[in-house]
Design brief:
Chain B: Pfam families: AzlD (PF05437). The complex is a heterodimer of chains A (205) and B (102). Chain A has 205 residues and is mainly alpha-helical. Chain A is 68% helix and 0% strand. By secondary structure, chain B is mainly alpha-helical. Chain B has helices at 2-23, 26-29, 32-55, 65-78, 83-101, and strands spanning 56-57, 60-61. The chains are: A mainly alpha (205), B mainly alpha (102). At the A-B interface, α1, α2, α3, α4 and α5 of A face α1, α3, β2, α4 and α5 of B.
Chain lengths: 205, 102
């Protein structure tokens, strides 16, 4: 995929898809490394993007009721797509089948396309001429768009853009993204304060 | 070598949070504030990453063909185009603008 265009070898691209297997984190890691970030700040950004998978796991563990011994193997497939498919099923049996089928097929497909993409990018040579450097931001935008449902999400996104771009000239590579992540708790704090002032109780929006 | 370290740390971290969701008792993560924060963190990170990879070159802010490509992707998203069409639109428009402006 785009990773080979950012200076990763074929092996590194494939290892990333096999071991990490959660798209947004992979793209973020590749982007941060390409920008010259050090491995730990790059990994931190990718890690924060992966945190949402813990909440998918939470809902899936109740829904699927997997035996404890199976969980470490099922965990690698806890991602956006498998969760969406499993949650859409009417019965536990269907949910388990849906989770397993989606997990296996996506895992195979994702890793196969990574290999082909990495080999292909090596052939092409200068990926910028082909506009492939625009693929990364387009992927992020496509992942982001469905999340921007309420004013809170839009405020977080806007603040994160300002922080992420505004601090870039001043801070080492990889760090501005982590500072931009603070937009989430900041906006949450402000909306919480406003809700409290209006007299609305509790954490609902 | 740095790349392998980053891949290793990310792989371990991402696997750990996936497994945590399956193993941790529901109460520990079910607090409304924690859930809201987990939902908003990807929003902040993706927005910042999108902007950075479009409007920057190293440490400098720039406006080039990638901005046109991202605009095309945004239009495709508004038209509810499938994922691959969105990415293809960005790539094609960026390459096109670059070819025209040389």
């Amino acid at each position: 995929m785009t990773s080979a265009g950012s200076g990763l070898t074929v092996w590194q691209s494939c290892a990333l898809s096999l071991l990490v297997f959660t798209g947004a984190s992979q793209f973020a890691l590749v982007g941060a490394l390409a920008a010259g970030g050090n491995p730990f700040t790059a990994a931190a950004g990718a890690f924060f993007l992966g945190v949402r998978n813990a909440f998918y796991g939470l809902r899936l563990s109740q829904l699927l009721a997997l035996p404890r011994a199976v969980r470490p193997f099922a965990a690698q497939w806890v991602i956006d797509e498998t969760t969406a498919v499993a949650l859409a099923q009417p019965t536990r049996r269907n949910a388990r089948v849906g989770f397993a089928v989606t997990g296996v097929s996506l895992y195979l497909l994702w890793n196969l396309t990574t290999l082909l993409g990495a080999l292909g990018a090596e052939r092409i040579g200068d990926t910028d001429t082909w506009g492939l450097d625009a693929a990364g931001p387009a992927v992020f935008l496509a992942l982001l768009a469905p999340m921007l449902r309420t004013a809170t999400e839009r405020a977080v996104a806007a603040l994160a853009v300002v922080l992420g771009v505004g601090l870039l000239p001043a801070l080492p590579a990889g760090v501005p993204v982590l500072v931009a992540a603070l937009a989430a708790p900041a906006v949450l704090y402000v909306t919480g304060r406003r809700a409290a002032r209006r007299g609305a109780r509790g954490g609902e929006r | 070598m740095n790349v392998w370290i980053a891949i290793g740390v990310t792989a371990v971290g991402c696997y750990a949070v996936k497994l945590a969701g399956l193993l941790v008792p529901a109460g520990a993560l079910e607090r409304p504030l924690v859930r809201r924060l987990a939902a908003l963190l990807p929003v902040a990170l993706l927005a910042a990453l999108t902007a950075q990879q479009t409007f920057t070159d190293g440490h400098a802010l720039v406006l080039d063909a990638r901005a046109a490509g991202l605009g095309a992707a945004a239009v495709a998203l508004l038209l509810r185009a499938p994922f691959l069409v969105v990415v293809a639109a960005a790539v094609v428009v960026t390459a096109g603008v670059r070819a025209l402006t040389g």
